[in-house]
Amino acid sequence: MSEPRRPGTSRPKAVVSWSSGKDSAFALYEARRAGELDVVGLLTTVTETYGRVSMHGVRESVLDAQARAAGLPIRKVGIPSPCPNAVYERAMSRTVDALRQEGVSRIVFGDLFLEDIRAYREEKLRGTGVEPVFPLWGRPTDRLADEMIASGVNARIVALDPRKLPARFAGRSFDRDLLAELPDGVDPCGERGEFHTCVTAGPMFSAGLAVAPGPVVERDGFVFADLELAELTRGTRGP
Of 23, 24, 187, 217, which sits with the fewest C-beta atoms within 10 Å of its C-beta? Predict the structure, then answer.
């Protein structure tokens, strides 16, 4: 456990592990709102084969627009597809070392309740001088989903596992209508991998992203709904 910050000391520098989705975006919002960290950037893995955010399939142009709207630089970690775990871990280890050299001592994650994922992050960061932070951890996901929507978060489902959620949900807005229609057993935030989102507006952004829906495709057992960047429009200004 880290020691409490003494009055007059500087805030620890942090980056946010950024998936392009609602959980990482809301974790950024909550980290800024708490004021205990100096958030200095975003950290994202990009699948080099496709030029898209890993797992979510979001275009780099949309990712870059998110970073501009958040007012933060983004560090992209390129990985291949497929990516063996050892290759991923080496890439992330090099990145964490570089971040530590730059004075970063915290990484903010948007994880909600999966103990094995949290334990993995804690294990991999142990001894590096960089600590994980989980601002959303343990919140009931039905209430958290409603809180995100109430805050002004706009997001769309850009990837889903058709074994857990019907393909017809691909491209849907993350809103109360969606929550009401989710099948029994599907987590409201998709925390068990049922779906992934891309945030286009919210209190963590200075402006909303105007996006246009692209094709829906099935690849490697998952369904992806493409989004193409149109322009930045006026939106909700965050702290």
Answer: 217
